[in-house]
Each structure stands twice: as C-alpha cells, then as structure tokens.
Amino acid sequence: MTIPISTYLIYLAISIALTIWVARTLHKNGRVFLVDVFHGNDALADSVNHLLVVGFYLINFGYVSLALKLGYTIQTAEQSIEALSVKIGMVLLVLGGMHLFNLFVFSRMRRRATAHPYPPVGPDAFTPVQPAAQQEA
Amino acid sequence: MFALTVLYDPECGLCRRAHEWLADQSKLIELNFVPCASTEARQRYPQLNHDLTKQDLTVVGDNGAVYFGPKAWLMVLWALARYRDWSYRLAAPELLPTTRRVVSLISQNRYQIGRVTGLSR
User: Fold this and answer.
1) Which among B64, B66, B75 has the least Cβ separation from residue A119?
2) What pLDDT was estimated at residue A137?
3) Which of A28, A66, A128, A136 has its CA 20 to 30 A from that of A1?
4) Does A132 reside within a domain?
5) Is residue A60 part of a domain?
6) Which parts of chain B register pLDDT below 70?
7) CATH code of B106's domain
8) What's the pLDDT tens digit per position in A46-72?
9) What is the tally of structural domains in chain B?
10) Per the CB < 8 Å rule, is B91 touching A120?
11) Residue A134 lies inside a defined structural domain of this protein
12) Which domain holds residue A43?
C-alpha cells in the first residue's frame, strides 16, 4: 500500500472512531439531561436524544468526508504523519465544537424547563376570590 | 399560582386585539379573560374596586393577588412561555421605571391608539 493511500485510510479510521466515541458519550450521558427536561417522559427524551445524535453523526461525517482531500502529494512517512496531525486536529476541533454546542442545547433546554417559578413583581393588593364563579373558568 | 384572570377593557380596540394575540400564544399559566367591571367580574371579586379596573389593566391571580397597571402587563408577559424571560428583564430595577412610563403612556392613550391604527370597530 502506498503512503498516500495508507494516510487516507488511517485518517478515516481515526476520525470515524473518534466520531463514534463522542456520539456514544453524548448519547449515553445526554439522556439523563433530557429525561429531566421532559419531566420524566422517557420516550420523548429517547427520541430527541436519538435525533440529536443522528444530526451529530451527519455533520461530523460530512466534515470528515469533505476534509479528506489533502491538496498536495506526500512521499515520506514524516509528511504523512504531519498531514494526519493537521487533519485529525481539525476533526477534533470540529468534534469539540459540536460537542460543546450539544451541551449548550441540553443546558438551554433544561434551563427553559426549570426557569423562574416566581412572578417578576409583587402584587398591589389581595382580594377575596368567589370560588363559585371560578368553576367555568 | 396556576391561573390569572385578566380584567380587560372591552370598549378598547387595542385591548381586544391584544386579547386575540394572547389567545394564540403558548402559556405557562392559564389566562382567563373577563371584561372589567362586568357582572362576572363583580361576582368573582366582590371586594375589588371595579371603577379602578376600568382605568387600567388589572390582573388577579387564583390566590387573590391583584396586579394593577404596569404590574398587570408584566404578569401577563410572565404567563407566556416565550416572554417569561422578558417579564423579568422589564421588571429589573434599571428598566422598571421605563416600563412603567411606556405602559402608562399606552394605557392612557389606548382609545386614540386604537383609532389611529384602525383597531377599534
């Protein structure tokens, strides 16, 4: 196997393995968050979790695939390692960004669900409420 | 608190329009609309000053808490899923005076605003 071909294959193997690892971590640990956000509705949490992970896979594999092309020829093993380090470094940064974005989405959902149970202002007065009139409301 | 009763002015086009808009919004707390100073309002809140409710928007919680004027507007915002964050922002000490001023201005001129914008029938 020539050096360029093996460089591509190593790149693909490492990137795919990394993506799968991050996605699985996200899937496993994001679930608890989502169950809390959806007030214990497990089915909905699992569904949203799965959909998020699918989006994660699509974006990352899309990026890995687009970034495959080197644009220059490599002849030696050193050049191959250097090219790999740049490519995989980029994949790692994209994965990190995506991962943080996912965490941001999770925490935002959670904050929405639990935000502010108290009114913003205090009342001006209190008045008795006639319970009989409230039944049709 | 699980429900708010909004005592609105049925004579004012702007208020009717606001009522329609509120009906479409997703709510965190139930909003009931009762025309101010109506028989229903008097029946429900026998000790409330109903002449005052004609002057400005009034909101009453299911626990009997009365919010009048700008506070009533903030409470309505607070009941809406999309605007709850805004109710806190507008009620913050830095913004509350401005909120009061703007809301009072709109409230005092609601008939004129309704007429100018063609909302009153």
Assistant:
1) B75
2) 42
3) A66
4) no
5) yes
6) 119-121
7) 3.40.30
8) 998 899 889 989 999 999 899 888 888
9) 1
10) yes
11) no
12) 3-112
Domain assignment present for residue B121? The answer is: no
- A chain contacts of residue B71, beta-carbon cutoff 8 Å: 121, 123-124
Distance between CA atoms of A74 and A13, rounded to whole angstroms?
19
Whether A17 shows a pLDDT value over 90: the answer reads yes
Q: How many CB pairs under 8 A join A and B?
A: 66
Query: Contact B75/A134, CB-based, under 8 Å?
Result: no
Q: Minimal Cα–Cα distance from A111 to chain B, Å?
A: 11
Q: Comparing A79 with A117, which gets the higher pLDDT?
A: A79
Nearest to B52 by CA among B63, B64, B42, B62: B42
Output the pTM of the full model. 0.54
Place of tokens 């799968």: A20
Residue A131 lies in a domain: no
Q: What is the CA radius of gyration of chain B?
A: 14
The answer on pLDDT for A91 being more than 90 is no
B69 Ramachandran zone, left/alpha/beta (phi>0; psi -120 to 50): left
Structural domain count, chain A: 1
**Residue at token pair 């997703």:** B26
- Sort out which chain B residues have CB atoms less than 8 A from A114's CB and list them: none
B43/chain A closest Cα distance in angstroms: 7
